[in-house]
Structure formats: structure tokens, C-alpha cells
From TrEMBL, chain A:
Entries under InterPro entries matching the protein: CPA3_Na-H_Antiporter_A (IPR050616), MrpA/MnhA1/PhaAB (IPR005663), MrpA_C/MbhD (IPR025383), MrpA_C/MbhE (IPR046806), ND/Mrp_TM (IPR001750), Proton_antipo_N (IPR001516)
Residue span(s) of domain MrpA C-terminal/MbhE: 695-771
Protein name, per record: Na+/H+ antiporter subunit A
Record field: transmembrane: 6-21, 28-47, 67-94, 106-122, 128-149, 161-182, 202-227, 239-261, 267-287, 294-313, 319-343, 355-379, 414-435, 456-475, 511-528, 575-595, 607-627, 634-652, 658-676, 696-715, 752-770
Keywords: Antiport, Cell membrane, Hydrogen ion transport, Ion transport, Membrane, Sodium, Sodium transport, Transmembrane, Transmembrane helix, Transport
Localization annotation: Cell membrane; Membrane
Superkingdom of the source species: Bacteria
NADH-Ubiquinone oxidoreductase (complex I) chain 5 N-terminal domain boundaries: 60-107
Record domain MrpA C-terminal/MbhD: where: 617-681
GO biological process entries: proton transmembrane transport; sodium ion transport
Family: Belongs to the CPA3 antiporters (TC 2.A.63) subunit A family.
Signal peptide segment: none
UniProtKB/TrEMBL annotation, chain B:
GO cellular component, one term: plasma membrane
Superkingdom, natural source: Bacteria
Ranges that cross the membrane: 12-29, 41-64, 70-89
Keywords: Antiport, Cell membrane, Ion transport, Membrane, Transmembrane, Transmembrane helix, Transport
Alphabetical list of PANTHER family matching this protein: NA(+)/H(+) ANTIPORTER SUBUNIT F1, NA(+)_H(+) ANTIPORTER SUBUNIT F
Protein name: Na(+)/H(+) antiporter subunit F1
Topology in the lipid bilayer: Multi-pass membrane protein
UniProt entry tagged with the keyword Transmembrane: yes
Family designation: Belongs to the CPA3 antiporters (TC 2.A.63) subunit F family.
Length: 779, 100
């Protein structure tokens, strides 16, 4: 199984090589066998006696992360969709993309996507699942931005990236929480601990995190906004990612975690509510669109909402209907996208307002579209598979699980009505999509090229998909026992009973009545569409979720710029006050909290008059230096402090320090004098009195803090000093009477080495700064 | 090595040290007040000379020869420092460039 998953990734390594001959043979031909082989491999598992398979490969054993593949009915449904539609999409893209395009990028991205999608649906380890999940986001980002020189493509790619990665990170949080609670990383092992998870106090958090991940990926309300903008991708990508596979990853996730999270009132409320609202809102908005792919995008969102709602219902009919509709939707939506691509390819536009009367020019495409569209609308004829799943949907919407609670009861009342209204709009936009493209008047002046039928190769893939539509429509129970029932069992649990799909339920069936209402009202609305489209102007565009998204992205950018600008002023004065202020506050607070200040005067030496006088001199000079505004007098006054310090060294019997201090002091004075000529006059920068007092507070506070720390550290001698050792061993070990110098070059010689290095670097740097002035010389 | 200081010498040295400390303190007034930079420079120079005296007295008081280096060093550094300041006050630079 691992070879099947990794095959697309391995072949991507060869694609750059294969694309060398793209002038002669379209690169797609070379790699087309890969998904077909994967499809054939997985098709072998289909059968009534199917039992789950699992395989395990070690990856990071220390973190309990291994590449576990678990193939149950649900995974099987998805891998067949991914590889099957993947093959068709590759075939279609061979005819769709011209050889002059960047084929190697396209196929590499597409196959990385296929690889990661296979990984998502097969992974049993949550962290591996998450890795593949982010791979799908990344490759989808690359594919949407495939025509990267277009502004809209980049916008769409960025938007989808932001939203899906946001959801992905939230999913990551949910998965981590889950694995911490259950102490396992395997989903199947988690299912066995369902009671533990459900009763855990973190359960609501897990639910929200995982559902957020699923909703963003599956474009549920209100995160659906990225999907219409993702239509800037090449049409094969839209057909593959944004109808059949990636957007169903969220559906897959909810289905996969249903055995853990499902059966709870909160799960029912959130998932069905968001699903049904998505169904209604997206189908309502789809009628407004004028772009073929825009209609299809909103339609996808709406259908995903429908599947999500059914997963939320959680009854066995609903789960079966959901699984059934996943398959149905993939067939008809894939074919519709491909036909939209054909129309675009052959007429040069996807704008519905410019199209019309294409039936006579493109009879084949029109026929294929007819099947796809009528299946999508759920027209009650026995060769449209969409009808069956829609009727099952109605059936499950009436028969909702019996949770108690006021809101749940309200929801149970409302769901059937919303479902019907949403389906009416679905019917309307489906009709609109078909009739305004293929019927009506042919608008010759609007089109750049004369439309003609697509090449045969382009029609193969949609034909196969439409064949699937018809076959499932004619024989709805064909794949039930062997295939769909296993998928539904994986979601629902062992108690699932396979459902018999029938075309005719009799007049008494409420679901049929609902379908008839949909068709009846839908037809009326579709015919009178022009008269009521003005309702869309009631909602101004600036109240849309797109505007909200743009506003959020904009204001995050502006807000962070503003915040950064307020504190990153470019003034070193401010930065120094931040540094000292934060040291003051943090260290002070810690000193205060931990009672770190200890003051003892036990072992102090007596103070003599010379020490007092010298100290006083230094203090006065230091304070006076603040108020000087002549630079030369400033350096002289600071010199007093330096000389005072050397006197203190002499008094405290440190001749070496005194020597060094004197030299350094003098050199510093000389250096200051050296650069004085180039410095501007010292002047008091005008500053706000508030700022000044804050600076005053910080400096005084900092001084007090350091003083306190000094006194405390003197007062609390925890260990006896090691200086006795140095004094004793200076002569026998170091061979020198000068203890300071023995320490510097013998006992702690390494420090001296690096201080010499510091001086050397400083000298070199000064030399370089003075000598190497390319910029100035160039000017 | 350990020589006891005679009580008289000790008293004299302490008086001298205190006197020089007071002198340094008073010189600080001239450094701070000025009124001109040459005044400050001369005061700093004098502080340095006082430092030499202080170091010498301390060496007597502590009965050590360790500070003799310090005294000599202060002398030469003071000279250099004062020359530098003086040259700066005179010319504005302390190292002349070659004019070739």
C-alpha cells in the first residue's frame, strides 16, 4: 500500500526529466499510468467480503509516530475517487493545457497533491494525517497560483492558503489534545476510547478545533469564501481539487472522527447547523454568479454543506446518503467543471452573459452537461444519480436523531424547510447554468473565436464521469453492498444496515413530495429569474464575507504596522529606556516577590575620611556631568570620576587595577578629544516633560535596583570565597608573587586570551571603519 | 619586610592624606565651575598631582613599594593627558596630518 501512496511523489522526481521531451510528447502521457495503476490496485479491495487492512511503517518511534495506513470502507471510497478522478483529470489536462505552458510545474504540483490526498485518507496516525493535510494545503496553494503572473491567481492562492492553514493549525491543536488525552496517536485506538474522550472536560475544545479544521478545508459557511477565488486555477485543478478531492478532505475528516465525536448533541447541532446553512447560503449565492466556474464553485460549497449536514444528522440513512452523495457529487461535479473548461477553451470566455446557443456548435458537450446539471439539480428521472442522494437527504432530514433540548427541537423543525429551500435554489442555478450556456440566442459579437466542438480527447474524461452518473442512476444498488455499505459502516459503526436505494417510494413518501416541490417551485423561479434577481441588490456587496476577509487581512496588516511604528521609533533613547525599564520592572518584581533583598551590616570595614572625600568627589562629579552642556568640560568632569576610581583602587590596595584604570582613562580622554572635532555641539534635545520624568524614574530606579542587588549580594554570602586558594598557590603553582597577574595568565588564562581577541577585533574594526569607505568614495 | 611605622610618622601621614583629600574635593569645585575649559584642564591636572601625592602617602602608610609604578604612571599620563587637552584647545585636533 505504501508504494501506491508514494508512487505519485516518486514520479514527481522524474517529471523534470520527462518534460525535456515535452515538445514532442505531452508530459501528461508519461505519468498518466500512475493514477490508473493506483486505481487498479485499490479496486481489487472492493467486494462484499471487504475487511479493513492496515500496514505500518516506522517513522519516528521515539515520539510514537509511525506511518500507519488503515484502509477501511471510507478510505477505499476516497482513494478510488482520488485515483480514479485523478486519472481522468490528468487525461483531460493533456488536452486542456498547451505544450507551451509550464507543464512540469503543473504535474509536479498535481502529483504532490495526489500523494498527499492519498496520505490523508489512508493515515491512521493523527500526526501523519496532519502532515499530509498540510501538504494538500500547500500543493493546492501552488496549483491555484499556477498562472502566477495573474493578480487574481495570487490573491486566490493566498486567500485559500491563509484560510486552510488557519484551519489546519486548529486541527493540529485538536489532534494533539486528542492524543494527549488518549495517550495514543492512532485513530482506531482513539475510537476504542470514545467514552474517555467524550466525558473529558476538554471535549468541547477538541470538537471545535477539529471541526474548525474540517469546515475551513471543506469551505463551510462562513469559510467558504476561498473556494470561489480558487477558481483562478486551471480548470483541471478546479475539477480535481475543488470539486472531487481536497474540499472533501474536511468531509472525510468529520466522517473519520464521527465514531469518536458523533452521537453527541453538540456535534449534531454544530455540524448540521453549519452544513444546512452552507447548503442554503451557497445555493442562494450561486444564482447570482455570472461566471461558469463561479456558479460551480458555489454549487460545490452548497453540496458540501449538504454532505456535512447529513454527517451531522448521524442516522444510518443520513450516513449512507452522505457517502452516496460523496460519490455522486464527485461524478457530476467533475464532469461539469470539465465541460466549463471546454466551453472556456473553445469560446474564450466563461461569462454566462456572453454565452448562449452553444448547443448547435457543441452538441457533445451540451449532452454531457445536460446529464451533469440535471443530476446536480436532482431531477426525478431514473438516470440521474443526484436524485437518489437528494431524496435520501430529504428522507434523513425529516427523520432526525432524537436529542432533547429547545434549540435542538427548533433545529429539527427548521432543517427540512431549509433543505427544501436550498434545493430549490440548487435547481434554479442548475437550470440557469445549462440553459443560458447552451440554449438561447447565439451572441456572435461577444465571442472572440467561433465556437466549435472540443477535441475528442478532451471529451473522454467528462464522458466517463457522465457514464458513471447514468450507471449509478440506472442501477443505484450496483455498488451498495460491495462498496458504499463498507464506507458507511466505517463512519456509523457496526450497527449499520445497508440501505436499499429505490427510485420510486410511492406517492405517500414525504421525500418525493419534497422533491416535487423543489422541481415545481424551482421551475417557476428559473423561468421568472430575471424578475426577482433584484433581491440580491438588497444585500450590498460590502456586507459580504469577502469584504470581511479583506477587512481582517487589511486591518491585521495595518494594525501591526501601526503597533510596530509606535514602539520601533528608530530612536536609541527609546530602546534604551525599554531595555532598562523592563530590566527594572522584571528584576524588581522578582526581587520583591521572592523577598530577595537582604541587608546586613555585620562584616563591614570601618570607613575613613579620605574614602568619604574621594567618594563624595566622584559622586558630585558624576551628578554634575548630567547638567553640563559643554562637551569638553563633560569629558574633564568624567575624567575626575575616572581618576577618583583609580584613587579608590589605590586605597583598596589594588595597584594593577589602578594602573590599568589610569591608562584607560587617559586613553579614553584622548580618544574623545580625537573625535570631538567631528561631533556636533552637545545640546539638550527637546523632550516632553512626561518623557523626561519617565527617564528620570527609570534611571533612579535602575540605580536603586543595582545598589540593592549589590548590598543584597554582599549581605548573603552563601559560600566562602576561593581567593584563599589563589593566595596560597600563587607561588608554588604559578611561580609568581603578583597574585592578580598569576590569575590572569595562569589560573584563568583563557579569559585573558579572549579579551586580547576582543581588543584585536576592535582594533581591526576601527581600522576597517576608517579605511574602507566604499560608499563615500563612490559618491 | 614588615616594618612598623613610628607613631609620629603615622599621624603625619594620616593628616597629609586627609589634607590632600580635602584638596581634591576643593579642586572639584574648579572642575565643575570652570568658568573656562582651560580652568578645568588645569584643575584636572592638579587633581592628578594630588593623586600622585596620595599614592605616595598611601605607600608610606601601608609600608609597600607596590605603588611606585602607579606614581610614575600618573605622572606621565597626566602630562600626556594635559598636553592632549591643551593641544585640542589650541588647534582643535590632537594629531596633525602630514601636509604632503
Amino acid at each position: 500500500m505504501i508504494y501506491a501512496v508514494f508512487a505519485p511523489l516518486i514520479i514527481t522526481l522524474l517529471i523534470p526529466l520527462l518534460s525535456k521531451w515535452k515538445e514532442r510528447v505531452h508530459t501528461g502521457w508519461f505519468i498518466l499510468p500512475v493514477p490508473i495503476l493506483i486505481f487498479i490496485y485499490f479496486v481489487q479491495f472492493v467486494g462484499e467480503n471487504f475487511t479493513p487492512h492496515s500496514e505500518s511503517y516506522s517513522w519516528i518511534p521515539s515520539l510514537n509516530i509511525s506511518i500507519d495506513f488503515y484502509l477501511d470502507g471510507l478510505s477505499l471510497l476516497f482513494v478510488l475517487l482520488i485515483s480514479g478522478i485523478g486519472s481522468l483529470v490528468v487525461l483531460y489536462s493533456i488536452y486542456y493545457l498547451h505544450k507551451s505552458e509550464q507543464l512540469k510545474q503543473f504535474y509536479i504540483y498535481l502529483y504532490i497533491f495526489m500523494f498527499s490526498m492519498l496520505g490523508v485518507v489512508l493515515s491512521d496516525n493523527v500526526f501523519v494525517l496532519y502532515s499530509f493535510w498540510e501538504f494538500t494545503s500547500l500543493s493546492s496553494f501552488l496549483l491555484i497560483g499556477y498562472w502566477h503572473y495573474r493578480e487574481r491567481s495570487r490573491y486566490g492562492a493566498l486567500k485559500s492558503m491563509l484560510i486552510t492553514v488557519f484551519g489546519g493549525l486548529s486541527l493540529f491543536g485538536g489532534l494533539i489534545t486528542l492524543s494527549v488525552i488518549t495517550e495514543t496517536t492512532s485513530i482506531q485506538a482513539m475510537i476504542e476510547q470514545k467514552d474517555l474522550i467524550v466525558n473529558h472536560s476538554l471535549f468541547p475544545l477538541i470538537l471545535v478545533f477539529i471541526l474548525l479544521g474540517a469546515f475551513t478545508k471543506s469551505a463551510q459557511f462562513p469559510f467558504h469564501i476561498w473556494l470561489p477565488d480558487a477558481m483562478e486555477a486551471p480548470t483541471p485543478v478546479s475539477a480535481y481539487l475543488h470539486s472531487a478531492t481536497m474540499v472533501k478532505a474536511g468531509i472525510f475528516l468529520v466522517a473519520r472522527f464521527s465514531p469518536i465525536l458523533g452521537g453527541e448533541p453538540s456535534f449534531f447541532i454544530i455540524v448540521s447547523l453549519f452544513g444546512i446553512v452552507t447548503l442554503f447560503w451557497a445555493s442562494f449565492m450561486a444564482v447570482r454568479q455570472t461566471d461558469l466556474k463561479g456558479i460551480l464553485a458555489f454549487s460545490t460549497v452548497s453540496q458540501l454543506g449538504m454532505i456535512m449536514a447529513m454527517l451531522g444528522f448521524g442516522t444510518d440513512v443520513a450516513i449512507f446518503a452522505a457517502v452516496f452523495h460523496i460519490l455522486n457529487h464527485a461524478t457530476f461535479k467533475g464532469s461539469l467543471f470539465m465541460i466549463a473548461g471546454i466551453v472556456d477553451h473553445e469560446t474564450g470566455t466563461r461569462d454566462v452573459r456572453k454565452l448562449g446557443g452553444l448547443m448547435t456548435f457543441m452538441p457533445m458537450s451540451a449532452t454531457l452537461a445536460l446529464f451533469g446539471v440535471f443530476s446536480m439539480a436532482g431531477v426525478p428521472l431514473p438516470f440521474f444519480n443526484g436524485f437518489y442522494s437528494k431524496e435520501l437527504f430529504f428522507e434523513s432530514a425529516i427523520d432526525l436523531p432524537g436529542f432533547s433540548g429547545a434549540f435542538v427541537e427548533f433545529l429539527q423543525q427548521a432543517i427540512p424547510y431549509i433543505a427544501v429551500i436550498g434545493s430549490i435554489f440548487t435547481f434554479v442555478y442548475s437550470m440557469y447554468l445549462f440553459f443560458s450556456t447552451f440554449r438561447g440566442k447565439y451572441k456572435e459579437h461577444e465571442l472572440k473565436t467561433k465556437p466549435h466542438e472540443a477535441p475528442l480527447g478532451m471529451l473522454i474524461s467528462p464522458s466517463i464521469l457522465v457514464l458513471g452518473v447514468i450507471l449509478i442512476g440506472l442501477f443505484p444498488n450496483m455498488v451498495n453492498e460491495s462498496f458504499l455499505a463498507h464506507a458507511a459502516t466505517a463512519v456509523f459503526g457496526d450497527g449499520f444496515h445497508a440501505h436499499e436505494v429505490k427510485f420510486w417510494h410511492g406517492w405517500e413518501s414525504p421525500a418525493l413530495r419534497m422533491s416535487l416541490i423543489v422541481v415545481g417551485v424551482g421551475t417557476i423561479l428559473a423561468i421568472t429569474r430575471k424578475k426577482w434577481t433584484s433581491v440580491y441588490t438588497v444585500f450590498p456587496r460590502r456586507l459580504s464575507f469577502n469584504e470581511l476577509y479583506n477587512y481582517i487581512v487589511d486591518s491585521i496588516e495595518k494594525g501591526s504596522t501601526k503597533i510596530t511604528e509606535t514602539y520601533m521609533t528608530g530612536s536609541i533613547r527609546h530602546y534604551v529606556s525599554y531595555i532598562l525599564g523592563s530590566i527594572l520592572i522584571i528584576t524588581g518584581a522578582i526581587l520583591f516577590i521572592t523577598n530577595g533583598v537582604t541587608i546586613e551590616f555585620d562584616d563591614l570595614a570601618p570607613i575613613t575620611i579620605p574614602e568619604i572625600l574621594v567618594g563624595l568627589t566622584m559622586a558630585i562629579a558624576a551628578i554634575a556631568s548630567i547638567f553640563t552642556n559643554n562637551r569638553l568640560s563633560l569629558i574633564i568632569i568624567v575624567g575626575v570620576v575616572g581618576y577618583g576610581l583609580s584613587v579608590l583602587f589605590v586605597i583598596y590596595r589594588a595597584p594593577d587595577l589602578a594602573l590599568t584604570q589610569l591608562i584607560v582613562e587617559t586613553v579614553t580622554v584622548a580618544l574623545f578629544l580625537l573625535c570631538f572635532k567631528h561631533l556636533p555641539e552637545l545640546k539638550n534635545l527637546p523632550s516632553h516633560p512626561g518623557v523626561k520624568s519617565i527617564n528620570f524614574l527609570i534611571s533612579v530606579g535602575f540605580g536603586v535596583l543595582v545598589t540593592l542587588i549589590g548590598i543584597s549580594s554582599h549581605s548573603s554570602k552563601l559560600f566562602s570565597p576561593i581567593s584563599e586558594y589563589f593566595i596560597e598557590e600563587s607561588v608554588p603553582l604559578g611561580g609568581g608573587h603578583n597574585v592578580v597577574n598569576v590569575i590572569l595568565v595562569d589560573m584563568r588564562g583563557l579569559d585573558t586570551l579572549f579579551e586580547i581577541t576582543v581588543l584585536g577585533i576592535a582594533a581591526l574594526a576601527i581600522y576597517a571603519l576608517i579605511k574602507l569607505r566604499h560608499d563615500k568614495e563612490a559618491k | 619586610m614588615e616594618h612598623e611605622l613610628s607613631p609620629l610618622l603615622e599621624t603625619v601621614v594620616i593628616i597629609c592624606i586627609v589634607g590632600i583629600s580635602i584638596s581634591i574635593f576643593i579642586l572639584l569645585y574648579r572642575v565643575l565651575k570652570g568658568p573656562t575649559n582651560p580652568d578645568r584642564a588645569v584643575a584636572l591636572d592638579t587633581i592628578g598631582i594630588n593623586l600622585m601625592a596620595l599614592a605616595g602617602l598611601l605607600a608610606i602608610f601601608l609600608v609597600t613599594t607596590q605603588f611606585n609604578d602607579v606614581i610614575l604612571l600618573i605622572g606621565i599620563l597626566l602630562f600626556i593627558g594635559t598636553i592632549a587637552i591643551a593641544k585640542f584647545l589650541e588647534k582643535g585636533v590632537i594629531i596633525d596630518r602630514d601636509h604632503n
